[in-house]
Amino acid sequence: MPHSSRLAIVPGSFDPLTNGHVDLVHRAAGLFDRVIVALLVNAGKQPLFSLAEREAMARAVFADVPGVEVDAFDGLLVEYARRRGAHAVVRGVQSAADLDYEAPMARMNRHLASSVDTVFLLPSEGLGFISSRLVKEVAGLGGAIDALVPPAVAARMAERSARTRTLKA
Ligand code: PNS
Asked: Could you tell me if the CB of 132 is within 6 A of ligand 1?
Protein backbone atom coordinates (compact mmCIF):
# COMPACT_ATOMS: atom_id res chain seq x y z
CA MET A 1 0.00 0.00 0.00
CA PRO A 2 1.41 3.45 -0.87
CA HIS A 3 2.27 5.61 2.11
CA SER A 4 -0.20 8.42 2.54
CA SER A 5 0.56 11.21 4.94
CA ARG A 6 -1.42 10.93 8.19
CA LEU A 7 -3.21 14.10 9.23
CA ALA A 8 -4.62 14.90 12.66
CA ILE A 9 -6.73 17.81 13.80
CA VAL A 10 -6.32 19.28 17.28
CA PRO A 11 -9.54 21.28 17.71
CA GLY A 12 -10.42 23.64 20.52
CA SER A 13 -11.31 27.09 21.76
CA PHE A 14 -7.71 27.76 22.89
CA ASP A 15 -8.93 30.76 24.90
CA PRO A 16 -6.07 31.15 25.54
CA LEU A 17 -3.54 28.60 24.35
CA THR A 18 -1.70 27.10 27.37
CA ASN A 19 1.53 25.15 27.81
CA GLY A 20 -0.72 22.08 28.12
CA HIS A 21 -2.02 22.70 24.59
CA VAL A 22 1.51 23.27 23.29
CA ASP A 23 2.59 19.94 24.79
CA LEU A 24 -0.44 18.23 23.22
CA VAL A 25 0.28 19.63 19.76
CA HIS A 26 3.94 18.60 19.96
CA ARG A 27 2.90 15.07 21.00
CA ALA A 28 0.41 14.92 18.11
CA ALA A 29 3.12 16.14 15.71
CA GLY A 30 5.29 13.24 16.89
CA LEU A 31 2.56 10.72 16.06
CA PHE A 32 1.19 12.15 12.80
CA ASP A 33 2.82 13.49 9.63
CA ARG A 34 0.81 16.71 9.74
CA VAL A 35 -1.22 18.44 12.44
CA ILE A 36 -3.81 21.18 12.08
CA VAL A 37 -4.49 23.24 15.20
CA ALA A 38 -8.11 24.18 14.45
CA LEU A 39 -9.69 27.01 16.42
CA LEU A 40 -13.38 27.64 16.56
CA VAL A 41 -16.11 29.55 18.29
CA ASN A 42 -17.55 27.22 20.95
CA ALA A 43 -21.23 28.21 21.08
CA GLY A 44 -21.34 27.24 24.77
CA LYS A 45 -18.56 29.59 25.85
CA GLN A 46 -18.11 33.38 25.98
CA PRO A 47 -14.45 33.83 24.94
CA LEU A 48 -11.98 36.29 26.48
CA PHE A 49 -10.13 36.67 23.16
CA SER A 50 -11.69 36.99 19.70
CA LEU A 51 -11.12 34.19 17.23
CA ALA A 52 -8.69 36.42 15.29
CA GLU A 53 -6.67 37.13 18.47
CA ARG A 54 -6.57 33.44 19.43
CA GLU A 55 -5.52 32.51 15.92
CA ALA A 56 -2.74 35.13 15.90
CA MET A 57 -1.37 33.80 19.21
CA ALA A 58 -1.46 30.20 17.95
CA ARG A 59 0.30 31.19 14.72
CA ALA A 60 3.04 32.92 16.71
CA VAL A 61 3.51 29.90 18.98
CA PHE A 62 3.59 27.21 16.26
CA ALA A 63 5.29 29.22 13.48
CA ASP A 64 8.51 27.20 13.70
CA VAL A 65 7.07 23.74 14.40
CA PRO A 66 7.44 21.55 11.28
CA GLY A 67 4.24 19.89 10.08
CA VAL A 68 1.96 22.07 12.24
CA GLU A 69 -0.58 24.41 10.64
CA VAL A 70 -3.01 26.78 12.37
CA ASP A 71 -6.52 27.29 10.99
CA ALA A 72 -10.00 28.32 12.11
CA PHE A 73 -13.38 26.81 11.26
CA ASP A 74 -17.03 26.95 12.12
CA GLY A 75 -19.76 24.35 11.81
CA LEU A 76 -19.31 20.66 12.50
CA LEU A 77 -15.86 19.37 13.44
CA VAL A 78 -16.35 16.17 11.42
CA GLU A 79 -17.28 18.17 8.32
CA TYR A 80 -14.11 20.18 8.72
CA ALA A 81 -12.12 16.96 9.27
CA ARG A 82 -13.59 15.45 6.11
CA ARG A 83 -12.89 18.61 4.11
CA ARG A 84 -9.25 18.59 5.23
CA GLY A 85 -8.85 14.83 4.73
CA ALA A 86 -8.00 14.21 8.40
CA HIS A 87 -7.64 10.72 9.84
CA ALA A 88 -7.98 11.62 13.50
CA VAL A 89 -9.02 14.22 16.03
CA VAL A 90 -6.64 14.62 18.96
CA ARG A 91 -7.81 15.85 22.37
CA GLY A 92 -5.95 16.10 25.65
CA VAL A 93 -7.42 14.54 28.79
CA GLN A 94 -6.12 15.22 32.28
CA SER A 95 -8.67 13.32 34.35
CA ALA A 96 -11.68 11.02 34.42
CA ALA A 97 -13.86 14.15 34.48
CA ASP A 98 -12.25 15.29 31.22
CA LEU A 99 -13.00 11.91 29.67
CA ASP A 100 -16.64 12.21 30.82
CA TYR A 101 -16.81 15.51 28.89
CA GLU A 102 -14.95 14.16 25.87
CA ALA A 103 -16.47 10.69 25.39
CA PRO A 104 -19.99 11.80 24.31
CA MET A 105 -18.45 14.25 21.82
CA ALA A 106 -16.14 11.56 20.44
CA ARG A 107 -19.06 9.13 20.15
CA MET A 108 -21.23 11.74 18.46
CA ASN A 109 -18.41 12.49 16.03
CA ARG A 110 -18.04 8.76 15.32
CA HIS A 111 -21.80 8.53 14.76
CA LEU A 112 -21.57 11.41 12.26
CA ALA A 113 -18.37 10.22 10.54
CA SER A 114 -17.19 6.71 11.36
CA SER A 115 -13.91 7.19 9.48
CA VAL A 116 -12.61 9.86 11.88
CA ASP A 117 -11.23 8.47 15.15
CA THR A 118 -10.61 10.50 18.30
CA VAL A 119 -7.24 9.99 19.96
CA PHE A 120 -6.84 11.00 23.61
CA LEU A 121 -3.42 11.97 24.89
CA LEU A 122 -2.22 12.59 28.44
CA PRO A 123 -0.25 15.77 29.14
CA SER A 124 3.32 15.72 30.36
CA GLU A 125 3.91 15.44 34.08
CA GLY A 126 3.67 18.85 35.65
CA LEU A 127 1.21 20.26 33.10
CA GLY A 128 -1.89 18.33 34.14
CA PHE A 129 -3.27 21.11 36.35
CA ILE A 130 -3.26 23.78 33.64
CA SER A 131 -6.52 24.80 31.99
CA SER A 132 -7.54 27.87 30.00
CA ARG A 133 -10.31 28.54 32.53
CA LEU A 134 -7.96 28.60 35.52
CA VAL A 135 -5.33 30.62 33.62
CA LYS A 136 -7.96 33.30 32.93
CA GLU A 137 -9.13 33.27 36.55
CA VAL A 138 -5.61 33.55 37.98
CA ALA A 139 -4.61 36.29 35.50
CA GLY A 140 -7.83 38.20 36.14
CA LEU A 141 -7.06 38.23 39.87
CA GLY A 142 -3.49 39.42 39.35
CA GLY A 143 -1.69 36.07 39.75
CA ALA A 144 1.39 35.02 37.78
CA ILE A 145 0.72 32.92 34.68
CA ASP A 146 4.14 33.11 32.99
CA ALA A 147 4.92 29.47 33.75
CA LEU A 148 1.53 28.31 32.43
CA VAL A 149 1.30 29.82 28.93
CA PRO A 150 3.73 30.58 26.06
CA PRO A 151 5.42 34.03 26.23
CA ALA A 152 3.31 35.37 23.31
CA VAL A 153 0.15 34.52 25.23
CA ALA A 154 1.45 35.91 28.56
CA ALA A 155 2.19 39.21 26.81
CA ARG A 156 -1.34 39.41 25.34
CA MET A 157 -2.91 38.51 28.69
CA ALA A 158 -0.89 41.26 30.42
CA GLU A 159 -1.95 43.77 27.74
CA ARG A 160 -5.57 42.75 28.20
CA SER A 161 -5.41 43.09 32.03
CA ALA A 162 -3.76 46.52 31.74
CA ARG A 163 -6.48 47.70 29.35
CA THR A 164 -9.23 46.38 31.64
CA ARG A 165 -7.66 48.18 34.63
CA THR A 166 -7.47 51.45 32.62
CA LEU A 167 -11.11 51.12 31.61
CA LYS A 168 -12.15 50.53 35.24
CA ALA A 169 -10.05 53.44 36.59
O1 PNS B 1 -11.61 23.65 23.77
P2 PNS B 1 -13.05 23.24 23.85
O3 PNS B 1 -13.95 24.46 23.88
O4 PNS B 1 -13.32 22.30 24.98
O5 PNS B 1 -13.36 22.44 22.47
C6 PNS B 1 -14.63 21.90 22.21
C7 PNS B 1 -14.72 21.33 20.79
C8 PNS B 1 -14.07 22.25 19.82
C9 PNS B 1 -14.00 19.99 20.73
C10 PNS B 1 -16.20 21.09 20.46
O11 PNS B 1 -16.95 22.21 20.90
C12 PNS B 1 -16.47 20.92 18.95
O13 PNS B 1 -16.02 19.96 18.36
N14 PNS B 1 -17.19 21.87 18.34
C15 PNS B 1 -17.45 21.88 16.92
C16 PNS B 1 -18.95 21.74 16.63
C17 PNS B 1 -19.32 20.29 16.56
O18 PNS B 1 -18.83 19.54 15.74
N19 PNS B 1 -20.21 19.87 17.48
C20 PNS B 1 -20.62 18.50 17.63
C21 PNS B 1 -19.48 17.72 18.28
S22 PNS B 1 -20.05 16.52 19.35
From this structure: no
84: left (phi over 0), alpha (psi -120 to 50) or beta: alpha
- Distance, in Å, from the CA atom of 9 to the CA atom of 62, rounded to the nearest integer, reads 14
- Residues 86, 7 contacting (CB under 8 angstroms): yes
Helix H or strand E encompassing 26: helix 19-31
CA-nearest residue for atom 1, ligand 1, is 12
Is the Cβ–Cβ distance between 103 and 72 less than 8 Å?
no
Claim: this prediction has a pTM higher than 0.90: yes
How confident is the model over 53-83, as pLDDT tens digits? 999 999 999 999 999 999 999 999 999 999 9
Q: How far apart are CA 58 and CA 109, in angstroms?
A: 25
